[in-house]
Design a protein that fits this description.
The chain contains 13 helices and 23 strands. The protein is α+β, with helices and mostly antiparallel strands. Among the domains are: about 110 residues, Alpha-Beta Plaits (2-Layer Sandwich); about 70 residues, Alpha-Beta Plaits, CATH 3.30.70. The strands form 9 sheets. A 5-stranded antiparallel β-sheet has the order 1-2-3-6-7. Strands 17-20-22-23 form a 4-stranded antiparallel β-sheet. The protein has a two-stranded antiparallel sheet with strand order 4-5. A hairpin with a 2-residue loop joins β6 and β7.
Length: about 400
């Protein structure tokens, strides 16, 4: 039984708890910016990796609470400033639903509930996710280095043994090149012709010419030629130098594929298709998650800027190589250009551009899997609105875009 004064005190304490919660905070932890919402029974954290964030602004359009704004994208991505991230999240407006986490194509955002990664929007209501298609056909893949070298997002996991080649320089514990392929090598010596001169053993670590003890009784050089298959790379130096022409080396290739496996790290892949386009055996399939077009009006671009080229996460924007004056033929030389084969239509360049009407982005579709909810349809409509950069900002320190109409 509770006395009236106990009930009164209990209600008072509950009222005090209600006044104390929720609590909000924001702090920087290394490259991460951590937003926190502390409730009476649990704690939510939205974590932004400011180093991974490209400033594409997709989370800005996706946020149902309008809690995210674009920061100084160009300056922060170029490293001109270190006090701000490409985006800014208002921790008091954020509902910690996880929509921004799902929609970020660069996996720069993480949501944790009581220290565990969770996505409440999927658990409670359902929400579609990107239909990622980025895969490597292991049968076609020859384990070369091309995809790893061209990938701008470190999304290739080349788990292949290190050999004594020059790729990535000398590696401790690198395997001999002879062990790269599965092969069968045969080494034969015509003992009738061999003089046991020792020249082959002096040149090759795979051969030892072992002489018997020299004795006046026989007055001959006797012994044997011992061959170590594991050390032989079938170079045939022994065959070429043998003065008696008594050595034969033959190699049969059982498999010309080297050991190991090459995979695409899905969380890092931005579907730029650098790897797929440059794979020499066409072993890689990558489909972009955004459909549409992007236009560069180079005649409006101030020469010497190069911000968009520097911050492009797909390495799709470049400064054209100057043409010789004799080849110009009254043309105006472009100061900037984009290779649309690699552009992922993320929008980072539009957000970073300090000019106006220079870059125009038109998205027409998004590859998703799962039921398209009403919330997603609203987000898709925003993302598919044609946009370009805007010079004058409404709020100092925040980037604003010029909306140009539906795509």
């Amino acid at each position: 039984m509770e006395y009236p004064w106990q009930v009164c005190n209990k209600k008072q304490r509950e009222g005090e708890y209600m006044a104390l919660f929720p609590k909000f905070s924001k702090k920087k932890d290394g490259v991460n910016v951590v937003m926190e919402q502390r409730l009476l029974q649990n704690t939510n954290n939205l974590i932004l990796n400011a180093e991974t964030c490209t400033g594409c602004g997709i989370c800005v359009d996706a946020c149902p609470e309008e809690a995210i704004v674009l920061g100084l994208v160009g300056a922060s991505r170029r490293g001109a400033i270190n006090y701000a991230a490409p985006i800014d999240v208002d921790e008091t407006k954020c509902s910690y639903c996880g929509v921004c986490v799902i929609m970020c194509p660069f996996n720069a955002l993480t949501l944790k509930v009581d220290g565990k990664e969770r996505l409440p929007i999927i658990e409670k209501e359902g929400f579609p996710q990107y239909d990622m298609k980025a895969e490597i056909n292991d049968e076609k893949c020859v384990k070369c280095t091309t995809c790893e070298e061209v990938c701008p997002r470190d999304a290739i996991d080349r788990n292949v043994p290190a050999y004594e080649g020059t790729y990535k320089g000398p590696v401790a514990g690198a395997k001999p090149k002879a062990g790269a392929m599965k092969k069968k090598t045969t080494f034969t010596v015509d003992k009738e012709k061999c003089s046991l001169c020792g020249l082959c053993g002096a040149l090759c670590p795979a051969i030892v010419v072992k002489h018997k003890e020299f004795t006046a009784e026989s007055g001959k050089v006797e012994g044997d030629v011992i061959w170590d298959e594991t050390k032989c790379d079938a170079c045939k130096v022994c065959v070429e130098v043998c003065p008696e022409e008594c050595i034969t080396v033959e190699r049969e290739i059982i498999s010309d594929k080297i050991d190991g496996k090459v995979d695409i790290i899905q969380d890092n892949c931005c579907t730029c298709r650098w790897c797929a386009i440059n794979c020499p055996t066409e072993a890689i399939t990558v489909e972009k998650i955004f459909e549409g077009d992007i236009e560069f009006h180079a005649e409006k671009c101030p020469g010497g800027c190069s911000t968009c080229a520097e911050i492009c996460p797909a390495n799709a924007i470049y400064l054209p190589t100057p043409k010789p004056a004799a080849d110009m033929k009254h043309e105006i030389e472009p100061t900037i250009a984009v290779n649309k084969d690699f552009c992922i239509l993320c929008g980072a360049c539009v957000n970073a551009c300090p000019g106006e009407d220079i870059i125009v982005l038109k998205r027409t579709g998004i590859r998703m899997k799962g039921t398209e909810t009403d919330l997603f349809k609203k987000i898709k409509a925003k993302l598919c609105t044609t946009r370009t950069s805007k010079v004058k900002e409404d709020v100092p320190g925040q980037v604003n875009l010029k909306v140009m109409g539906k795509a």
